[in-house]
Write a structure and sequence with these properties.
With about 325 residues, this protein is of the alpha/beta class. The chain folds into two domains: about 5-190, NAD(P)-binding Rossmann-like Domain (Rossmann fold, 3-Layer(aba) Sandwich), CATH 3.40.50; about 200-315. Helix content is about 45%, strand content about 10%. It has a six-stranded parallel β-sheet with strand order 3-2-1-4-7-8, sandwiched between helices. Strand 5 and strand 6 form a beta hairpin. Helix 8 packs across helix 12 and helix 11 packs antiparallel against helix 12 (about 275-290). It holds the Pfam family UDPG_MGDP_dh_N. Its EC number is 1.1.1.132. Belongs to the UDP-glucose/GDP-mannose dehydrogenase family.
């Protein structure tokens, strides 16, 4: 088995700091970078070498460079601010230039819109002639258990170019250390798929929370004696969408049958006109009508349209 890669972690806040400690825990040689003095001191106190980018050692031989920098929301535009991602380029170029071993793999972990990693790669390539590869790895850390999640993730996903066999093999070998070498817990996507997945992952979490609060608000409007918490909890053990990972994920297939086409509009109609509850619930029917009336995207199936098998997806 190949030896462990030399890892550099750029950005050592909540996410980057948790991953930096996790790599050290799994026996990797790791060097961290951050621009906040308090974070640098905290990492060094925890036994993780950490520097300001201006103080980058000249003898680092980075094999894998991980970027976990903030991408905050710009309130006025409701888009992510990429300035911290672009600000990493000078340090990344310096690390590439001083590398004398394996071709460095640069891995963006920050949440970004699809296409960002390749645009960032182009900016880096414009500043160095030395070879390197890029990848994107969505992370699924929870703030309350970030260090535990980083050390022992329940699933690892990363994206790289389809023809980047060396990158795929090296990253797989590296990440498998975190899941006990269980290949079933590792999935490789394209870069765009991995970037998109991170956003969809977080949207799904937000959607479920908002769904619960929408039902809570609607119940209060209809009859304050309805215990929405009890109803939702029971639905989680009766509705197939909660019981099965396979149900409801068949893209291109609208729901049909008898119950859903009549009960979805009925629940929607119970919400007051113009209310946020009506707005939220009506989207379900509108999306179903859209896919029903879009022949170029609709999938015609002879069996239940709501099921999808992992074997079809190569995961």
């Amino acid at each position: 088995m190949p030896g462990k890669e030399n890892v550099v972690q750029i950005g050592c806040g909540v996410v980057g700091g948790a991953y930096a400690k996790a790599y050290v825990h799994h026996g990797f040689s790791l060097t961290g970078f951050d621009v906040v003095p308090a974070i640098i001191d905290k990492m060094n106190d925890a036994g993780v070498k950490c520097f300001h980018p201006d103080d980058c050692p000249s003898d680092l031989n980075a094999d894998i460079v991980l970027l976990s920098v903030p991408t905050p929301l710009i309130k006025e535009t409701q888009r992510l601010d990429m300035k911290y991602v672009w600000s990493t380029i000078p340090l990344v170029v310096k690390l590439i230039e001083q590398s004398s071993g394996l071709t460095p793999i640069l891995v963006i972990r920050s949440t970004v819109p699809p296409g960002t990693t390749l645009k960032w790669e182009a900016e880096v390539r414009a500043k160095t002639d030395k070879p390197f590869q890029v990848a994107f790895q969505p992370e699924f850390l929870r703030a309350v258990s970030c260090e535990e999640d980083a050390r022992a993730p329940w699933q690892i996903v990363f994206g790289c170019a389809k023809d980047a066999d060396d990158t795929r093999a090296r990253m797989s070998n590296c990440f498998l250390d975190f899941v006990g070498r269980d290949e079933n817990k590792l999935t490789v996507l394209t870069i765009a798929e991995a970037e998109f997945m991170k956003l969809v992952h977080n949207y799904a979490n937000g959607l479920k929370i908002s769904f619960a609060n929408c039902i809570y608000g609607l119940a209060h409007e209809l009859d304050p004696s309805i215990d929405a918490q009890k109803v939702l909890y029971l639905v989680s053990s009766t509705a197939e969408c909660f019981l099965s990972r396979k149900y409801g994920l068949r893209v291109g297939a609208p729901y049909g049958g008898v119950c859903l086409p009549k009960d979805v509009p009925e629940l929607t109609s119970l919400a007051p006109e113009g209310s946020v509850f009506r707005e939220f619930l009506s989207g379900t029917g509108k999306i179903n009508e859209w896919i029903t009336n879009t022949p170029s995207l609709k999938v015609e199936l002879t069996e239940s349209p709501n099921w999808v098998s992992p074997s079809e997806l190569n995961v």
